[in-house]
């Protein structure tokens, strides 16, 4: 199968901004008197900001303690903290193997897109100096259903005028792999902690991306 497009998640795939998310959620959790563990961090990967807050509250048995307006204020506060930490992001924070893999894909005429639930995706790409490498970046603010729903991946395929079968998705989270499969695409998994569906092309890290060319992509 020769794919015509590669669709990338952002956090944990192109760069490791997960540590900034963790710091922001941990800061908010401390303010609210909530527990925030490594297991909680894993549960929040790959989902929208709103869903992440719901999961955190559920895991602390506090899901009924906040109104919709209060929840919106909390996610906005978390995002403010996250954007503070993003100021530390530099091009050197692009994960190993990503830039040469993107250039190799471009040389093969493969279209590149970002399918991230982060509303800060464009700002992150600018910080990493990756913006010019992508043909399309999904606008998370216009995506109504978060991963594992396939909407964002289908949005990318539609924007690139391609069928889902012509696209290959790259994810580091179980919810993302499920979303890719639900979209009718195959998935590359970067160190995915598999609990339901396994990725079609499992990798331990982005440094192994170049091995995918031997798969006749």
Largest sheet: 6 strands, parallel
Strand order of the largest sheet: 3-2-1-4-5-6
Structural class: alpha/beta
Low-confidence spans: none
Radius of gyration (CA) equals: 17 Å
How many extended strands? 6
Estimate percent helicity.
40-55%
Gross morphology is globular
Q: How large is the share of residues in beta strands?
A: 5-15%
Give the count of helical stretches: 8
Name the average pLDDT: 94
Give the SSE string. Answer: EHHHHHEHEHEHEE
Roughly how many Å apart are the termini?
6 Å
Please give a handful of descriptors for the protein shown:
single chain; 217 residues; alpha/beta; 8 helices; 6 strands
Polypeptide structure, described:
The chain is globular. The protein has eight helices and six strands, in the order E-H-H-H-H-H-E-H-E-H-E-H-E-E. The protein has a six-stranded parallel beta sheet, with helices on both faces. Helix 1 (18-32) crosses helix 4 (68-86). It has 217 residues and is α/β, with parallel strands linked by helices. Strand 2 (111-114), helix 6 (121-128) and strand 3 form a beta-alpha-beta unit. The N and C termini lie close together (6 Å).
């Amino acid at each position: 199968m020769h794919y015509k497009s590669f669709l990338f998640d952002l956090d944990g795939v192109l760069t490791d901004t997960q540590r900034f998310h963790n710091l922001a959620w941990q800061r908010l959790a401390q303010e609210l008197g909530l527990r925030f563990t490594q297991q909680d961090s894993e549960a929040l990967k790959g989902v929208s900001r709103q869903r992440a807050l719901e999961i955190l509250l559920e895991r602390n048995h506090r899901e009924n303690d906040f109104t919709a307006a209060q929840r919106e204020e909390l996610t906005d506060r978390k995002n403010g903290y996250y954007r503070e930490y993003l100021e530390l992001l530099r091009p050197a924070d692009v994960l190993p193997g990503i830039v040469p893999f993107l250039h190799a894909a471009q040389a093969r005429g493969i279209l590149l897109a970002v399918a991230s639930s982060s509303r800060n995706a464009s700002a992150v790409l600018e910080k990493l100096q990756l913006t010019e490498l992508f043909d399309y970046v999904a606008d998370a603010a216009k995506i109504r259903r978060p991963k594992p729903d396939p909407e964002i991946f289908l949005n990318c395929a539609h924007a690139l005028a391609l069928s889902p079968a012509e696209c290959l998705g790259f994810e580091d989270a179980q919810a993302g792999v499920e979303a890719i499969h639900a979209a009718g695409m195959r998935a590359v998994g970067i160190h995915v902690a598999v609990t339901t569906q396994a990725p079609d092309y499992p990798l331990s890290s982005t440094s192994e991306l170049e091995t995918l060319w031997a798969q006749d992509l």
